[in-house]
Each structure stands twice: as C-alpha cells, then as structure tokens.
## 1
Amino acid sequence: MAAPDLDDIVRLCKQRGFVFPSAEIYGGFRSTYDYGPLGALMLRNVKNLWWRTMVQLRHDVVGLDAAILSSPRIWEASGHLANFTDPLVDCRSCNERWRADHLPAGDDGVVRCPNCASTDLTEARAFNMMFKTHVGPVEDGANEGYLRPETAQGHFVNFSNVLQTSRKKPPFGIAQVGKSFRNEITPGNFVFRTREFEQMELEFFVPPAEADEWFEYWCRERLEWYVRYGIARERLRLRHHDKEELSHYSAATTDIEFLFPWGWGELEGVANRTDYDLRAHSEASGVRLEYFDQATGESYMPYVIEPAAGATRTMMAFLIAAYDTDEVGGEARSVLRLHPDIAPYQVAVLPLSRKETLVPVAEEVLGLLQPVAMCDYDETQSIGRRYRRQDEIGTPLCVTVDFDSLDDRAVTIRDRDTTGQVRVPIDVLAAEVAARVGR
Ligand code: ATP
C-alpha cells in the first residue's frame, strides 16, 4: 500500500471537493476549513458510524445534544478556566508564537524558533485555549460565555436529567457528537489540528470499583473500531500517559494513535475521569449529582470512563489509510480503498453515453438505488475516465447502463478494488447493491 504524503491528501481533498480552505476567495482564514460535497458526506458517515456503534447497537448508552454556547460557571467548576492551558512561548526575533511542548530541541540540545531559528525565546506562560464571547447585546463581564472546548461537560451537567428520563443505571453511558472550539496556538497538519473541530465523546458512568475494568474495555473496543472500518492494525497503537502528562481531571489516560505521514498522532483519548467532574459540579451548583442504588439503599457518585475521539481528525486518518495507487490496464490509477460505510458515495450510476434512449433507463436505475445507498450520477466523459474518478473518491461500486440494457434490462456492476465486472438484471439490482455495500 502506498503511503501518501500530506500534500497528496491536501491536493486530493481540494481537487475532488472533500475539504476547502475556508474563505478561500479572501485568501483563507486562520487554518479554518470548509467541508465540500464529498467531505460533508464522508464526515457525516464517520459520525453516523460512531453513533451506530456507540448508541444504536448498545442498550447501555443514550444520546445527548447539548449547547455549544455555555455558562462560565460550567468551565469554572470543571477546572477549564484555571487549567485548560497550553504553554506559550514568543520568539523575540520574529514575534511568532509557539506551543512550548511542541518545540523540539536541536541536536545540540538548544530549542530554536521554527520560523527564524532564533534561540531568543521567552519563558513559557500559560495560555487559556477557550474562546470567550459575549452573550446578548451588552459587552460586559456579566454577559460572558464560552464556546465549549470539549463536548463533555454537557454530559455531566445533564447527569441527573438523563438519569431520571432514561431510567438507566450505572454502568451506562451518554454519547454526544458535535463541534468544539479551542484557540490552538499552532494549528496545522491540515485538519489534524484546527480551532473549530468536531468531537465524538462518550461519558460512561460506572461503579467506582469497576472503573479499571471498563477503562480496559473501552481501550480495546475503540481500537477495534478503527481496524473494523479500514485502518491496518500496524498503523495504530495505544500510548499510555505518564503522570506528568495527565490532564487535570484524569487518573489514567491512553491515547489511540495513528501513524500519520509526519509520525504518530492522537486519534482518540480514553480517560478515567474518576468522579472529578460530577463532584466539581455538585459542589459548585449545590445539586447532588449522584446515583441512588435501590439494591443497597445507598447513593454514590459514579466514576467516568471517557473515550473522546475527533471526527474531523478521524476522517483525515481514514482518507490517509485508504489512499493507494496501482495499475489498471497498464495505466496508473489512484484509488481510495474506503470502507463502504465511510465512502462518500456507495454507488455511481453511469450511462454509457448521453444518448436520449439511455437516459430514462439510467434515471430509473438511479431511482431504484437512491433509497438503498448514497449515489453519484455522472454522464460526462469517457467511461474509463469516469471509473478513474470514482476510484479516486473511493466509490465502491459503479453501475453502468449501456445499449444492451435497453434490450436485456440488465446493467453492469464494476467493483472498485478488483475492477471486476458482472451483469445484473435491473429487477434484482437494488438487492444486489444492498448486499455488496452491507445494507
Ligand atoms: P492534542 O494532544 O492533540 O491537543 P488532546 O489530548 O487535547 O489533543 P482531547 O482533549 O483528548 O485532545 O480531545 C479528544 C479528541 O478530540 C482528540 O483525540 C482529537 O481527535 C480531537 N481534537 C482535540 N483537539 C483537536 C483540534 N484542535 N483539532 C482537531 N481535533 C482535535
């Protein structure tokens, strides 16, 4: 499998409509990105797959969609106002700013500015990464609010609401997918680190005595998820945090890392948050966030195991892992070997020509397949070029309508990975496609 470099991925994303630089017509805007027609489909697929795995296929997890705009009291109690900081250093020579823990020392052990190589750097100071804003028309301190830097606190402040309405009891989880915002000092590596991004977070509430067991369970489950959807096991690893690296709320953290073109990077962190958050919010709000166990007649504060993944970062990892080049009929092709559940389109319907006689049959075929799978429809250029285009964007199946289709009421299914072709009657096409893309 060809390992792409980052430029290959950025180029593919731009040319084929996965990801565009935001506000490009104005020269871009500070490492923000927009997801184009294919990126919007693929990102949605990643989030839906996570939801399906974490909520739909389990009986012990319920969903939540909490507000992004949030009260300062939440972040004060959670410790983020005091602790959600990165160490910032300034270069006195070129005035660039860097995250101190991302600046490697040279062979001589000296740290230099990556921009101008000066060694004249300030001492590191704590920089809070939360975006502050004003809520309402008056811009004063009483109206301050924050864009959430993680989805997680929504789960904790709604703990009692969810417990009462869902009738769940520990061990049980609350899952949420949504945007988070961090004023990163050095965003970069395309969508790996951005200031606006999407997270997929589960807070799993357990009896304290079971916390270690569930921590191991979620590390295993989450690692397997990436493998199941197409990332080779050898490009993934688990990395345990030392005591010094642990977040302020965590008793243990293991990162699931992926081998990006520039080296290992985090896809997801699994943390044992203990009862840190429920306790902090109970103390700050005066509302006891506990579970009353009818069996023992006692109340207790559950521990929380949190698998927290990034949706945008994960989409990028799936793109990199799927990228491949090979040769078909003596010609080089580039192909995204995406899992059908992740590929933007599962099927492309391709009439052999734009002749009037073919179009009605092609449209009929499209209408039959659209309820089953996400379909592209393309009638321009030679069929060979259209196959290449679909290979490059990862479409697992092409369905070609040709002149024989008018007589035999059959079409050709072409497989992205093998390039093999089979003739299938239109009457059974929807069932055949559904079976092939796992619907
Ligand atoms: P990092 O060490 O890379 O800054 P983190 O440990 O602070 O990440 P978490 O707080 O554990 O990240 O967030 C959970 C997940 O959210 C990460 O594993 C990552 O996939 C995603 N994520 C975090 N920050 C960003 C970001 N700035 N851009 C894109 N995704 C992010």
Note: The pocket of adenosine-5'-triphosphate is lined by residues 150, 182, 184, 193-194, 197, 199, 266-269, 308-310, 312-313 (CB under 6 Å).
## 2
Amino acid sequence: MSRIQLLDPRLANQIAAGEVVERPASVVKELLENALDAGAAHINVDVEQGGVRLVRVRDNGSGIPRDDLPLALSRHATSKIAAVEDLEAIGSLGFRGEALAAISSVSRLTLTSNDGADAEGWQVLVEGRDMAPVVSPAAHPQGTTVEMRDLFFNTPARRRFLRTEKTEFNHLEEVFRRIALSEFDTAFRLSHNQKVVHQLPVARDDAARAQRVGRLCGVAFMEQSVSVDIEAAGLRLHGWVGLPTFSRAQADLQYFYVNGRVIRDKVVNHAVRQAYSDVMYHGRHAAYVLFLELDPALVDVNVHPTKHEVRFREQRMVHDFLFRSLHRAVAELRPGQTPAPEV
Ligand code: ADP
Ligand code: MG
C-alpha cells in the first residue's frame, strides 16, 4: 500500500496560506494591493475586532468578469502575468495568484464584483476548504468588494497565535499607513468597529500630501520635519525628514520607498544613520518618510511576497547620494546653525 498521497487542493492551500496569511494585517495588505492593481481611485477598509472577525475591502477598480470569479480564488491563478518574460518587468504589486486562494482557505470569504459588463454584479462565496465556490448575482457598482470573516475559524492552532484586538489592529493600521503614504492618487478610508480611523482624500499637490502625511504620522512629525526634494545623477530623493529634535526611542517612524514600494535596506539605513550622526544622540532614531526614484533597471525588487528587500546595482552611488542629500538637509536644520537673517 502506498503511503504517499497527493494533498487535497484545499488542504494544500491551507498549508501554503501559512506563508501569506499570518494575521489580519496580512489580509489587509493583500486586499489593498489587489485594489490598487485594479486601478481603484477609492478604497474603503472596514474591520472589526482587530480584523479577526471582519476585514472588508471595497474598491471602484476594474472589477472581475463573472467567469473569472471562481478562478480568482484558485491557487496560481492571476491576470497579472502570463509568461516567464513578464517576471522581468512586473508592473503590479501582485503576480503570484496566491492571496485570495490562501485567504479563502482559512476564513469565510465573499468576493463580489462588477466589471462594468453587466448592470449588476456577481458574487462568489467560499468557507474554508470544504466548499466549492458558488456564483450568484449580487448588486454591486463597478469595482470589487472582498469580505473576509472569522480568520482561522477552521485552523484553531493558527487562531491561538493571534494577539489582542488592539495589537492586531495596530499591525493592520501600520500596513494601511505604509500603503496610504505612497499612493497619494488614491483616496482611502479605514474604519474599526464602525468608527472611522482614517479618512484620506486624494492628495494631488504638496499641501494635500503633507496633510495626508500629518494624518498618518501625526501633526508633531509634520511640525518638526522639513520637506526635501533633491535630484542628482538620475536619482531623485523627496519626502520629509524629521528634525534631530524629533528623534525617537524606536525606529518606528521610518518609511523608505523605492520606486513606490516600501523597503527595508541596510545600505539605506546606514546612509541615513551617518547623515544624522553629528546631530543625533546615540541610541535615538531619526523619523522620515522618503521616496527614492531611480531607473528600475538599477534596482532588483525582491519578489518574496512579504520581505521588503531590494538590491541596488550601484550600492555605493545610492549610498553616497542619500548620505550627501540628507546630510545637507539635516545640517541646514541644526538649531544654531541657521544662517543669520540678512540685514
Ligand atoms: P495576484 O494578485 O497575485 O494576481 P490574487 O490571489 O491576489 O493574486 O488575486 C487573483 C486575481 O483576482 C488577480 O490576478 C485579479 O485578476 C483578481 N482580483 C483580485 N482582487 C481584485 C480586485 N480588487 N479587483 C480586480 N481584480 C481582482
Ligand atoms: Mg494579489
């Protein structure tokens, strides 16, 4: 008798879900990325009980054609890439076709969408791994709503790893913040237990962008930071850097985006730390929201779904550009070093 068996596909999804869905925050990340990939101009996120009981993301993007609805929930099903060459130039946030399959295998998921082809929309519902998707008509304006309820209801071992409602919500809000800080052309709303936590209109000009950053990172940061915009040798660095007086005990207000993607990188961290080294007490951390733009050919975006790593082709050049730009900005900010006003 053979002891090796092929896993039932839904069970395989559940196992794979471990990599994609760790907690409600991971669900919010995946659903926000899907809405952005669909070109949504408005995205509403409603959550209950830290996202464990409910995460609902509603967008006004392209929508999903009726016949694609069950496919959207299958593993390795994506509309974003078709051939191996596409991997070289990924223009979307997603491409693995894993998220919806993973989420739907560990929750009760309803996907409602209207791609504009019919007046009404369509809905598909799955609960855990025991149900085949069923498509039925449902009213929905153009766009998509994904409603996830009862995360890990069928995987009690995973459910036990969830923390308190407050902790889960903090993780979720952080994911929302990271994304909302870079997608200024999209309006966002986040509500928790029916209370609106963030309401962010589209931010087209500098003033509106600064206002959004203030809403997400606090007014104190906006008051004690300056905006920078520096270009050299095909690199552009712009955003907001905190004054040394706004230093923090933890590195919890450091957002760095490369070509619109949030990343964590040693080269970047080192350059920033060096730029602040003269003015920052040991053990304190700078606060910043910075965007680096450069030729995509000069940077490898790590394609792991959750790690935010990049590899710069010209590490030295990027490091020196960041260091020089920030060093100058920070030096100009130093109290006592402000040039005396001309008489
Ligand atoms: P991926 O994003 O990697 O393609 P997902 O499992 O997240 O994989 O989504 C599967 C497919 O479902 C997507 O490729 C897309 O075609 C469709 N889809 C998911 N969410 C949305 C959305 N909000 N709007 C339009 N299409 C969506
Ligand atoms: Mg996706």
Note: The first strand starts at residue 42 and ends at 48.
